[in-house]
Amino acid sequence: MSNSTAPRGKLIVLTAPSGTGKTTIAQRLLKDRDDLHFSVSATTRNPRPDEKDGIDYHFMTDDRFDELIKRGAFIEWESFYDGTRYGTLHSEVDKQIESGYFILLDIDVKGAWNVKQHYGGDCLSIFIRPPSLDVLKERLKQRGTENEESLRLRLERASMEMEYEDNFDEVVVNEDLEAAYDQINSIITRFTEA
Ligand code: ADP
Ligand code: 5GP
Q1: CB 181 within 8 A of CB 28
Q2: Could you give all domains of the chain from N- to C-terminal order, each with its CATH number?
Q3: What's the first-to-final CA gap in the chain, in angstroms?
Q4: Alpha carbons 125 and 169: distance in angstroms, whole number
Q5: What's CA 138's distance to the chain center, in Å?
Q6: What are the CA-CA distances from residue 72 to residues 54, 68, 103, 110 (Å)?
Q7: 110 Cβ neighbours under 8 A, 6+ residues apart
Q8: What is the distance in A from the centroid of ligand 2 to the CA of 108?
Q9: How far apart are CA 132 and CA 129, in angstroms?
Q10: Looking at the CA of 175, which ligand is closest?
Q11: To 10 degrees, the CA torsion angle through 137, 141, 143, 149?
Q12: Atom of ligand 1 at shortest range from CA of 175
């Protein structure tokens, strides 16, 4: 039986063009704050060397992803780059939100906009902006995870994503990591304590 007097949790969505630094910031927030629970997304891309299944993503085949779509398992999902799919699972969000937790999502701009539309005031959406596209390119190269083609696709998509920043509750520029982190942490505290 559900407890109607229990406080309902809320969502905090970090979004940004790939390579801006949202995973770096999300991981640090999760280390520093025990009031946040991460929503582990599903994806059809291959794991990077340092990534673990069930921790960074639920890595899966296209067939499995299709099956989950059919079952209605996703709150939202998107297909981009070369057809790689990413999605937010109901199972990562629904129970935790009912239990009153704050759930942190690290998702792309379109997914973030869909989640914001769905959850309204129960969702804080933060767009993280890179200082420039040139800096973004350098960060993606430095991360060492992309080949020439995937780098090109990510940068192409980044130009489109940058045009969406006005759709989000807050915009933070990630130039200096410490400054951006402090700013985001304070924004989240204002939201969780409101
Ligand atoms: P995203 O999750 O948005 O794709 P990442 O968190 O993987 O981005 O960051 C991309 C790369 O940029 C990583 O190598 C990370 O260490 C680096 N990075 C993140 N923030 C900064 C910053 N403020 N200055 C320089 N490098 C950064
Ligand atoms: P990466 O391959 O670099 O881990 O992620 C690529 C992009 O997919 C990033 O912008 C990341 O935030 C986004 N992403 C990760 N999970 C999800 C998700 O569940 N839904 C959507 N829409 N995007 C996601």
Answers
A1: yes
A2: 10-193 (3.40.50.300)
A3: 28
A4: 5
A5: 21
A6: 20, 6, 20, 19
A7: 78, 164
A8: 5
A9: 8
A10: 1
A11: 90
A12: 23
Q: How far is the C-alpha of 122 from the C-alpha of 33, rounded, in Å?
A: 19
Closest to 33 in 3D by CA, of 96, 103, 84, 88 = 103
Task: Say whether pTM exceeds 0.70.
Answer: yes
Structural tokens at position 7: 């406080």
Is residue 9 lining ligand 2, measured as CB closer than 6 Å? no
Amino acid at 39: S
Token output for 5: 């007097």
* Higher pLDDT, residue 136 or 98: 136
Number of the ligand closest to the Cα of 14: 2
pLDDT in tens, 47-81: 999 999 999 999 999 999 999 999 999 999 999 88
Q: How far is the CA of 66 from the centre of ligand 1 (A)?
A: 31
39 lines ligand 2 (CB under 6 A): no
Residue 107 reports pLDDT greater than 80? yes
